[in-house]
């Protein structure tokens, strides 16, 4: 078993020891250290007795105590440091498992796990909620003209801008390449369209400095509201994706949702035009 997340500054022997502790388990490690202290104490007292040539139990007692007093804090602090390091490693592992490393927002897997619970609750209690799929427009051009690193920088800026347009309870994640996804709990369709429009405007106003000039982009957004007929979260995502496709077809840089109400038949329901 490896300990890839132990800090690089930790010395080699410490990393080796951590791997060993991980392999045997923390309680076995504590038992082993206790045994080491006991054996060292007995060994030292026996050594002292044999050097002196006679068995004085007070000398044995004092040397055993001295041994324990020096070794216990030393090994105890080592164990404490190990526990802190492993705890830090565990936290870092959690971040890696839930966060997208480019943008810092949640990754897709974590989004699905978190939102599935929210979705089930919203569905059971018929609470309004909505989903947004946000896709950067003509992003290939950005990469082609300014390079992939510039594209990365722009993606980070878009994610930050989207995050700043949301409430604490909303869940934002990177869904794939240049696509973000947002779940808006306790939000009715009109509210969701307002949020989407705010996001669209803010991204349009972004300008990211790059090699002496600035780079900007726009986003297309598909919105899907929670409906009683929805069989699953995947289905809701599919509806948001269809609405996003409509936004792209309508010239990009706009927000679209699908015509769920009978009065709004025909094509994607046009919501916010740029
Ligand atoms: N820099 C960067 N580019 C990415 C990343 N993920 C996906 N892309 C790029 O995003 C581009 C997506 O291209 P397309 O799917 O053709 O879409 P588009 O050019 O945005 O065009 P439309 O979506 O139709 O507006 C590709 O060039 C991908 O390489 C990433 O993490 N970093």
TrEMBL record:
Keyword Iron-sulfur among UniProt keywords: no
Native source organism of the sequence: Piscinibacter terrae
Signal peptide positions (record): none
Enzyme Commission number(s) from the entry: 2.7.7.65
Any Pfam family: GGDEF
SUPFAM superfamilies assigned: Nucleotide cyclase
Entry annotated with the keyword Cell membrane: no
Domain GGDEF as annotated: residue spans: 127-260
The protein's name: diguanylate cyclase
Alphabetical GO biological process terms: cell adhesion involved in single-species biofilm formation; negative regulation of bacterial-type flagellum-dependent cell motility
NCBIfam families xref list: GGDEF
Keywords of this entry: Membrane, Transmembrane, Transmembrane helix
Transmembrane segments: 25-52, 58-84
GO molecular function, one term: diguanylate cyclase activity
Domain of life assignment: Bacteria
A single Gene Ontology CC term: plasma membrane
Catalytic activity: 2 GTP = 3',3'-c-di-GMP + 2 diphosphate
């Amino acid at each position: 078993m490896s300990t890839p997340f132990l800090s690089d500054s930790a010395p080699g022997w410490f990393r080796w020891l951590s791997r060993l502790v991980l392999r045997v388990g923390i309680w076995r490690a504590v038992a082993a250290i206790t045994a080491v202290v006991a054996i060292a104490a007995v060994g030292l007292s026996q050594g002292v007795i044999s050097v002196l040539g006679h068995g004085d139990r007070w000398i044995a007692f004092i040397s055993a105590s001295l041994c324990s007093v020096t070794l216990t804090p030393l090994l105890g602090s080592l164990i404490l440091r190990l526990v802190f390091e492993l705890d830090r490693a565990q936290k870092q592992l959690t971040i890696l498992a839930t966060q997208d490393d480019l943008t810092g927002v949640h990754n897709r897997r974590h989004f699905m796990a978190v939102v599935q619970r929210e979705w089930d609750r919203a569905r059971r209690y018929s609470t309004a909620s909505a989903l947004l799929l946000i896709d950067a427009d003509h992003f290939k051009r950005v990469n082609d003209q300014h390079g992939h690193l510039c594209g990365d920088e722009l993606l980070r800026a878009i994610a930050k801008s989207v995050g700043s347009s949301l409430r604490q309870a909303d869940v934002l994640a990177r869904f794939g390449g240049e696509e973000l996804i947002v779940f808006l709990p306790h939000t009715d369709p009109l509210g969701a369209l307002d949020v989407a429009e705010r996001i669209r405007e803010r991204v349009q106003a972004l300008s990211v400095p790059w090699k002496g000039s600035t780079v900007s982009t726009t986003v297309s957004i598909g919105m899907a509201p929670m409906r009683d007929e929805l069989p699953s979260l995947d289905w809701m995502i599919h509806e948001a994706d269809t609405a996003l496709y409509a936004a792209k077809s309508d010239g990009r840089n706009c927000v679209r949702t699908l015509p769920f109400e009978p009065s709004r038949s025909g094509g994607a329901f046009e919501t916010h035009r740029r």
